[in-house]
Amino acid sequence: MAKESPQFLYEGVLTGTYHFESADFGGGRILYCGWEQCAAGHFCGPHIRPHYLMVYAVSGGGIFRARSRTYRLGAGSTFVIFPGENTYYCADGEDPWFYYWIAFEGEIFDRLLLRASVTPEQPVHCADEDAAAALQNCYGRLLGCCEARLPYIDLKAASALFDILHTLSAAANLADRLEVRQSPLSPHVQRAVEFVKNHYGEPLSVSGMADALGLSREHLSALFREEYGIPPVRFIREYRLYTAATLLLTTRYPVAEIAAMTGFSDYNYFSNQFSRRYGMSPSRYRQSGRERIL
Q1: DSSP for 93-134?
Q2: Is the pTM higher than 0.85?
Q3: Which of 37, 107, 127, 237 would staple 132 via disulfide (CB 3.0–4.6 Å)?
Q4: Is the pLDDT of residue 79 over 60?
């Protein structure tokens, strides 16, 4: 069952935590979950934990610091504290976070988090709009069940955690996942992916790609949905954004030039899509990648 710590107010802020007495499953254990509307400037750390703590920002903003890197994170962002890592996080002074969290332990989670491209070296995940809604739903359902003190809450907690990890993995940058995919791509999708890699900087449509590959648009779309769960137009956009992010951190090209180089003819559209994908503007992303400490 979930044992509730009393919800309480401090400095006008309401928070609640639920501790699990027997949420064990093969290779892992869920310890507690909770939520908080942070006070302005509320901080935690520097601190080292013996377990994993995964924090999801529903709204507001703040900073997270790990391994001497500082991340500015807004709504839709997840940061993961790994066991033994010295971390610090602080809510914004004007627009503080409202966030959910879940704590767990077990070596299995290193492998599961890796599938979502979350590691001690890269402990942050920024979800797009669809994934953010799914994550909020996962946490909200879990905390609602805890508040209602439903029976067999340990099973619900395990289910919610795996749903969260699944959502993070599905939303992880598709270009990143190409190299670590375990199951082979179909030959048609392999050719389509290579086509995107070779032509992402040019005007590129799904119909044009399908014609070049000798497929119908409908067949190509069905193949991408089967392999990735998304249509090819979104795959193209994700690959372009991934490439733009890489160029921002590894070159000195102006941001507008990088947008054009990666196939975005409309700079405002590029900036909007990049901010939704990475949780910050392209300029801020470049700056944050070069900051070692605030």
Answers
A1: SSSB-EEEEEEEE-THHHHHHHHTT--SSS-EEE--HHHHHH
A2: no
A3: 127
A4: yes
